[in-house]
Amino acid sequence: MRSGEFISGVLVGALIGAAVGLLFAPEAGEETRERIKERAGDFKDRAREKGSEWVQKGTEVLREKKEHLASMCHRAEEGS
Predict the structure, then answer these.
(1) Residues of 9-41 as b/e, b for ≥16 C-beta within 10 angstroms?
(2) Are 43 and 15 in contact (CB under 8 A)?
(3) H helical segments located in the chain
(4) At CA 66, angle to CA 3 and CA 51, rounded to 5?
(5) Which has more pLDDT, 73 or 30?
(6) What's the rounded mean pLDDT across residues 41-51?
(7) How many CB atoms are closer than 10 A to CB 54?
(8) Whole-number Å distance between alpha carbons of 2 and 6
(9) How far is the CA of 18 from the CAs of 10, 36, 48, 59, 73, in angstroms?
(10) How far apart are the C-alpha atoms of 43 and 23, rounded to whole Å?
(11) pLDDT given at position 24
(12) What are the backbone dihedrals phi and psi of residue 7, each rounded to the nearest 5 degrees, phi first?
């Protein structure tokens, strides 16, 4: 399992756990719905942030691999 899949699973599990906990909390329905809305917004913000981090990291890895491949091609051309 890749770490990205694991992290996604943890985030989804945390969201589900938080929602279930809020639903069973001894509060009025309107207060509970407001807390769920707030938590969902927080989750959305964290997910967007993590997604941006993953894209940035993927872009960096791709750039490094591209540079490495270009270097290998250059060396192969010089050796011919």
Answers:
(1) eeeeeebeebbeebeeeeeeeeebeebeeebee
(2) yes
(3) 3-23, 29-79
(4) 35
(5) 73
(6) 87
(7) 14
(8) 6
(9) 12, 8, 19, 33, 52
(10) 17
(11) 75
(12) -65, -40
Would you state the structure tokens that stand for residue 39, as one six-digit string? 């938590």
Structural contact between residues 50 and 7, judged by C-beta atoms closer than 8 angstroms: yes
Quick one: DSSP state of residue 23?
Answer: H
47-69, pLDDT tens digit by residue? Answer: 888 888 999 999 999 999 999 99
pTM above 0.90, yes or no: no
Chain center to CA of 70: 30
Sign of CA dihedral 72, 73, 74, 77: positive
